[in-house]
Write a structure and sequence with these properties.
The protein is an all-alpha fold. The chain has one domain. It is 70% helix and 2% strand. Strands 1-2 form a two-stranded antiparallel sheet. A hairpin with a 2-residue loop joins β1 and β2. α2 packs across α3, α2 packs across α4 and α3 packs across α8. The protein is globular, with a radius of gyration of 22 Å. The N and C termini lie far apart (49 Å).
Length: 250
């Protein structure tokens, strides 16, 4: 928050211990709390939404059905028929990232996807899983993925390391994109929100620019919600693409 003329735009990303002495003993932070909240919201929405099983769905049931069908369609369209067996993982991943992105828009909540440690851990899990799937399905033939087809053998010592580096760079592609977008958006919200407080306290001359800053902040909130949904979708789609490569080796 702003203090006088100082704007601490990065203070909102500070981790704090939760659950008192118990949290201190296991280093349980506000990020961990928000992860539990996100998990509870996902399970609660699916359970309450699907419980009526109405022919004409209500809002929660429609939301649950659209989420289920949307992610299932993403899996089958991107990976193929084999995508059905990866659906539970992709659905969980999409929901976890989406809630992590959206919760931080609300006051007193924390955006755990704005921390590189969280997004890097998710990206590492995705890359390790896709590697395991490739090795499980194809054995050592999986390593042919790093050998471009139709390339002269003389160029392979140059191209194979490039392919391996490109494969490893998926960690950066997944983690940094999500972390950077979430962090940048929340910094902008903090900065313009601080402008409203600072300019609003400057007397009559500050009312108009304060109102303008407030209008910009409202627009940024809408944009941040859009980015939150888009980044969760991109994370899930890229995971599906990587699984497709592991399953089909192309």
């Amino acid at each position: 928050m702003a203090s006088g003329s100082n704007i601490d735009a990065l203070g909102q990303f500070t981790l704090h211990r939760s659950l008192g002495a118990l949290g201190a003993s296991v280093n349980f932070t506000n990020a961990n709390t928000m992860m539990l909240v996100a998990g509870a919201l996902i399970l609660g929405t699916l359970y309450v939404g699907m419980r009526p099983k109405a022919m004409v769905p209500g809002r929660l049931q429609a939301l649950a059905e659209l989420s289920y069908e949307g992610v299932l369609g993403m899996c089958t369209d991107t990976i193929g028929h084999e995508g059905r067996k990866f659906f539970p993982f992709i659905f969980t991943l999409f929901g976890f990232v989406l809630l992590g992105n959206l919760l931080g828009v609300f006051p007193l909540f924390f955006t755990y996807t704005s921390h590189i440690a969280v997004t890097l851990a998710l990206a590492l899990f995705v890359v390790l899983l896709t590697t395991y799937v490739g090795l499980r399905m194809h054995g050592l033939h999986f390593f042919s993925y790093f050998v471009p087809q139709g390339v002269p053998k003389a160029l392979l010592p140059l191209l194979v390391p490039i392919e391996v580096l490109s494969y490893i760079s998926r960690l950066i592609s997944l983690s940094v994109r999500l972390f950077a977008n979430m962090m940048a958006g929340h910094v902008m919200l903090e900065v313009f929100g601080s402008f409203v407080v600072m300019l609003g306290g400057a007397g009559l001359l500050g009312l108009f620019p304060a109102g303008l800053s407030f209008a910009v902040n409202v627009a940024l909130i809408g944009f941040e919600v859009l980015v939150a949904v888009l980044q969760a979708y991109v994370f899930a789609v890229l995971t599906c693409i990587y699984l497709h490569d592991a399953v089909h080796l192309h």
